[in-house]
Amino acid sequence: MAKTRVINFDLDDKYVYFDFGTYALMMYYAKQVDSANGKLLFDATSSEYWYRIDYELDTNGISNDDDTAHFEILELQQVVTFIDSSITKALSNEPQDLLVKYGGVKKFYDLFYSEVGFLGNISIDMDEFYDDNPINICYKFSRLNDLIKYAISINQAYTVSIS
Predict the structure, then answer these.
(1) Does 84 map to a domain?
(2) pTM of whole model > 0.85?
(3) What DSSP element (H or E) covers 139?
(4) Residue 13 lies inside a defined structural domain of this protein
């Protein structure tokens, strides 16, 4: 049975969530398209606390209970451009579902954990739920992008949590 963990992004009346396996697949795909921009995207989907832990920055005044996302306008603008141009274009050219492209769930799981770097901060199991359809993934990226654009426009961080 697939797990039901989700990652949630929330700001005002804007709410976006992804099944955790789908989120991991999205981050892996983004890294394959462009590793540097994939890292910025990953950072944009991290809480400020975990961002600071990852970069070994001071966490004084911030706790693990604080769900405020890492929020750097210039980085977020770059993420928006990355999703709008590179991710959307790449996904529109995918001829098959992503798990088929990666050789199935087991092979994707092995590929995911063989990667070094920021993807190691995501912990997935093989029994996560994965939506691997390129059209659906593109839609999910566009919803996240809309939330990020809104956050930029009002200059306010969204929250990010896993439930």
Answers:
(1) yes
(2) yes
(3) helix 134-154
(4) yes
Residue 131 φ then ψ, to 5°: -100, 110
Q: Residue 103: how many CA atoms within 13 Å on its side-chain side?
A: 7
Check pLDDT > 80 for residue 116. no
Q: Please give the tally of structural domains in the chain.
A: 1
- DSSP-H helix ranges across the chain: 20-33, 35-44, 48-54, 73-81, 88-92, 98-101, 105-114, 134-154
Cα(151)–Cα(124) distance, integer angstroms: 28
Q: pLDDT > 70: what percent of the chain?
A: 98
Domain residues for the domain of 127 are 6-162
Which of 27-31, 74-78, 94-98, 115-119 bottoms out in mean pLDDT, i.e. has the lowest?
115-119
What are the tokens at 129? 């739920």
Judged against a pLDDT cut of 70, whether residue 2 lies above it is answered with: no
Query: Would 38 be classed as within a structural domain?
Result: yes
Give me the pLDDT at residue 136, please: 97
Rounded distance, CA 85 to CA 132, Å? 20
Q: Is residue 61 part of a domain?
A: yes
Give yes or no for a contact between 64 and 49, defined as CB atoms under 8 angstroms apart. Answer: yes
